[in-house]
């Protein structure tokens, strides 16, 4: 049972005991803020290497999760990242009635259903505001709209990709050059695959759909394309269309309750709000039946922004220790449908070998029933602006032109 924190002079409650799992950049920031607060005791901090210098008393460090549990925390704050051992540690804590606060979007996206059920079974709570948007309160905004009918969510949810794309626009350079700059500044991990492939965005989109009340969705069910194939030439093509390229996460709920989700590059008109987002910020657009379109924007990464969200969850937990979890226990699996909206697409396909034959290209277009607004044929590269087609048809066309090699294509719908 979690006690209410009360700082009046008349009550002297026992301090709240908290254990931290992880003491990296975010963990260290959280530890610094908790250490200076009255009414809070840090019982243990789980780390991989207890010999490294940390901004916390060495006596609190341990590499044993059993020691963490033995310290009898009332709240565990999980900041390890990844799926294992984080998932196992969260399960063990919840099974003992210990509430958990986590910033781990992979855990919530892939195992949130079972973990929330486990928490409910043992009278604990699982809070995860920091899992999407860091200090940008997007999940809190979705909670407040649950009495309304949320019909669509879209946004730029990965700050690393947004930094890379805006850097390419500013310098005219290639993706690998912008990635090196992002890594130098600490905006990209040494292994940036989760960001660049869109996997990080897909996991966050699952969390957003869950919090909107649409149901549980596994990231593998989302049509996902990353930014790895984007070239400086694509960025220039976008500019000529008065657009910029952004990696968008998009979700829509139909009147029949089915949900369609997509993560991938999109041509966004320069006048649109999402086009103006630069650097590592995140931005979200929520459409609801009563409130209309709501915009939420702010820092999407960083130790201080993430710590803000974690401390907010801690406040919610201590202010209402017996309150219901943000995600309802009765939430079911979502009924999914493929994105079927017809949109104009930008398609760039590199031929597998040899020159592109105009007759062959036109034959492929005719067989697929696709009419192009414009064509740009070069020796080994084809660029097409199509009339409205589905994303599946556009992707199928691109891979046909590239001899089945999706890694030689860019397929980006034009955001209306």
Poorly predicted ranges: 7-11
SSE string, helices as H and strands as E: EHEEHEHEHEHEHHHHEHEEEEHEHEEHE
CATH superfamily of the largest domain: Dihydrodipicolinate Reductase, domain 2
The CATH level-2 architecture of the largest domain is identified as 2-Layer Sandwich
Report the β-strand fraction as a percent range.
15-25%
Q: What is the distance, rounded to the nearest whole angstrom, between the alpha carbons of the first and last residues?
A: 51 Å
Largest sheet: 6 strands, parallel
**In terms of structural class, how would the helical and strand content be classed?**
alpha/beta
What would the average pLDDT be, to the nearest integer?
87
Percent range of helical residues: 25-40%
Morphology call: elongated
Radius of gyration: 24 Å
Strand order of the largest sheet: 3-2-1-4-5-6
Number of helices: 13
Q: Could you name the CATH topology of the largest domain?
A: Dihydrodipicolinate Reductase, domain 2
Q: Tell me the name of the CATH class of the largest domain.
A: Alpha Beta
Q: How many β-strand runs?
A: 16
Keywords for this entry:
alpha/beta; Rossmann fold; 33% helix; 16 strands; 416 residues; Alpha-Beta Plaits
Structure write-up:
The structure is a single chain. The protein is an alpha/beta fold. The chain has three domains: 16-127, Rossmann fold, CATH 3.40.50; 138-299, Dihydrodipicolinate Reductase, domain 2, CATH 3.30.360.10; 345-413, Alpha-Beta Plaits (2-Layer Sandwich). It contains 13 helices and 16 strands. Strands 3-2-1-4-5-6 form a six-stranded parallel β-sheet, with helices on both faces. Strand 14 and strand 15 (381-386) form a beta hairpin. The longest helix has 17 residues, at 105-121. The radius of gyration is 24 Å and the shape is elongated. Residues 7-11 have low confidence and may be disordered.
